[in-house]
Specification:
This protein is of the alpha/beta class. Among the domains are: 251 residues, NagB/RpiA/CoA transferase-like (Rossmann fold), CATH 3.40.50.10420; 58 residues, no CATH class. The protein has 22 helices and ten strands. The strands form two sheets. The protein has a six-stranded parallel β-sheet with strand order 1-10-7-4-2-3, with helices on both faces. A four-stranded mixed β-sheet has the order 8-5-6-9, sandwiched between helices. Helix 2 packs across helix 12 and helix 16 runs parallel beside helix 19. The chain binds iron/sulfur cluster. Iron/sulfur cluster (SF4) binds next to helix 14. This is Iron-sulfur cluster-binding protein.
Length: 485
């Protein structure tokens, strides 16, 4: 029996967060999973000078970004020389059209996909379905959420919101697998189902973790072997990636790889690390006959032009900021209603979707700073959240689509009045006395702000008055004591 399709949107963030907080199963699933991931990460870095490694990772990413246009041209030239066809896509729509055209040109009806968040960002599966092309996710977590007609709730572990019983039900209802709590049995069943699809697929679509400009090498990090199957079994391989994933040379990869695996899953190395540099050569027995690389911009060039927001592009998509975020771990990934949830989503999605749709995401943070502290490439996430908040009320540089959407004349007037009062002591004292006398008239409901809070009332007396009263009281007691003596 098919599950009802759940639709989550960033515009409905408040309602979705409310629903998630009232769902003990979601909270328990995320709490358990995130506690485990935080612990694994901590252990994985125990024998390392983490700060030195983070500094190295940040400098590698910054160096690559400082030369991004040159490196992209170098990557294109090198890939083409290696026999990889390179395509440029301005946005997700164009990227989908490119992938669909390659499929159609080759008469493809069936696509197998390795894990790719950029393909999620592009909504590639829906686009291919419209063209009559069937796309199946082969990452186990992605396979499960696809069966369940959901989207990933985490960028590294797409099905982290599901527990064993829920997965058993999904597999039973959608694939006929006998109900079981045996994880190995479910994995074996999924492997058998996917194996057939790998062998029959016309095209494999994958993501890219690092694209090396020096050699034209596409690096793919994974644990299940599905990435290797996707990129070697079908006759055509299409890799899709954001333009920011380029690095300068091969020696840049090991530090980023070390940071990525430890930060993401607490592993020292992943089970598979794939390096793809060309299609199958004449003397080789396997591999695709054609390899395509689709470089997707989708708002990244705009981010690149702002020297503060540029830091967003350092991201290596490890998910650590999500695992450590007190908001994400309580409401889960679907609540955000965006391809990238959690702190990375809050700083990236406003650029991809505009602040009109995502204005509540940068404020879905207590600014505790945990995300910035664990980010392996030292992205100043809290600073970027503050910057986006400023943009949303029209106080930034106007470099984000939808800037100023939250600007409210009432709020501006209120803050300007507050500022004036706070800088005029006599007026402040007068206002404090009046507010203290009229405190009984203060409203107890202030819209959404008091949904989870008690409205504050003006104090009966100001701090200055209280200090004066206390000093008088002290003098009086002292006088009494002297009289008694
Ligand atoms: S922002 Fe940092 S911690 Fe978050 S996914 Fe990107 S690299 Fe990882």
């Amino acid at each position: 029996m098919s599950q009802p399709v759940q639709t989550f949107t960033p515009e409905a963030f408040h309602r979705q967060a409310h629903d998630a907080l009232g769902n003990p199963q979601i909270r328990a699933n995320f709490r358990k999973a995130m506690d485990g991931l935080m612990d694994k990460r901590r252990q994985a870095f125990e024998d390392w000078d983490l700060e030195a490694l983070r500094t190295l990772g940040a400098s590698v990413r910054l160096r690559a970004l400082s030369r991004l246009p040159d490196l992209l041209e170098q990557l294109e030239a090198k890939c083409e020389a290696n026999g990889i066809h390179v395509h440029w896509a301005e946005d997700g729509e164009e990227a989908c059209r490119i992938v669909t055209r390659i499929c159609q040109d080759n008469g493809a009806r069936s696509v197998i996909k390795g894990k790719s968040m950029v393909s999620e960002e592009m909504h590639l599966n829906a686009h291919l379905a419209e063209a009559g092309i069937d796309a199946l996710e082969s990452d186990l977590g992605e396979y499960l959420v696809q069966l369940n007609e959901q989207t990933p709730s985490h960028i590294i572990m797409p099905a982290i919101h599901l527990n064993t019983d829920e997965i058993s039900t999904i597999m039973h209802e959608h694939t006929g697998t006998a109900p079981t709590r045996d994880v190995d049995a479910m994995t074996a069943a999924a492997r058998a189902q996917l194996r057939e699809r790998f062998m029959a697929a016309d095209v494999g679509v994958s993501g890219v973790n690092f694209a090396v400009a020096e050699t034209g090498t596409l690096c793919l990090v994974e644990n299940e072997g599905n990435g290797r199957m996707t990129t070697t079994v079908p006759p055509i391989h299409i890799a899709v990636t954001g333009i920011e994933k380029v690095v300068e040379n091969l020696s840049d990869v090991p530090p980023l790889y070390a940071l990525l695996t430890r930060s993401a899953t607490g592993q020292h190395v992943t089970t598979y690390f794939n390096m793809i540099t060309s299609p199958r050569k004449e003397d080789e027995r396997d591999g695709p006959r054609e390899v395509h690389l689709v470089l997707v911009d989708n708002g990244r060039s705009r981010i690149y032009q702002d020297d503060e927001l540029l830091d967003t592009l350092r991201c290596i998509r490890c998910g650590a900021c999500m695992n450590h975020c007190p908001v994400y771990t309580r409401v889960g990934g679907h609540t955000y209603g965006t391809t990238y949830p959690g702190p990375i989503g809050a700083i990236l999605m406003p650029h991809l979707m505009g602040l009109e749709a995502t204005k509540d995401l940068p404020t879905a943070s207590s600014l505790c700073g945990a995300c910035g502290e664990v980010c392996p490439v030292k992205i100043p996430i809290p600073d970027l959240l503050v910057r986006l908040r400023r943009e949303s009320v029209g106080e930034g540089r106007g470099n984000v689509p939808g800037a100023g959407v939250k600007r409210s004349a009432k709020e501006v007037t209120a803050w300007k009045s507050w500022q004036w009062l706070a800088t005029h002591p006599a007026a402040w004292r007068g206002a404090s006395i009046v507010a203290g006398k009229l405190r009984g008239l203060a409203p107890s409901h202030l819209g959404p702000w008091t949904e989870c809070r008690v409205a504050p009332k003006p104090a009966k007396a100001s701090l200055h008055t209280l200090i004066k009263q206390r000093a008088k009281h002290k003098d009086r007691r002292q006088g009494q004591q002297e009289d008694e003596a």
